[in-house]
Fold this protein.
Amino acid sequence: MVKTKVGMVVGSIIGVFILVYGTAFLFHLLFGGYMLEGGLANLNYGVLALLCAVPFVLKALIGRSNRSTGYAILMSAALFSVLFVLVHLVVVLSAEGMQDDAVTRILAVFPLSALLLVVTLHFTTRKENIS
């Protein structure tokens, strides 16, 4: 597991970008559609990745450099990945064009769910002694 804060920050950002763009590319190959109109060239994918990475980056920067912080980031990232992939798949399979209000909601809901997961696991891992 990564021990330094810089490593956790960089790993979090890279991981979220791989998750967002990787699932978009994979779902396009499998189902022929994208969640956002314009495909991978749509800048909202980058904005979504950055907004989703913010809670993980903040946890890495604010939290202590110990096993508990790494565990919280890893577990919240795993739970967020499952949630993101499933919701992304449903949106791609719905085959509806995303209107501006739907894009705004997507750009708000995914980062808020990541924040909720990070905060919840922050408080639960603080009380446990993870060795």
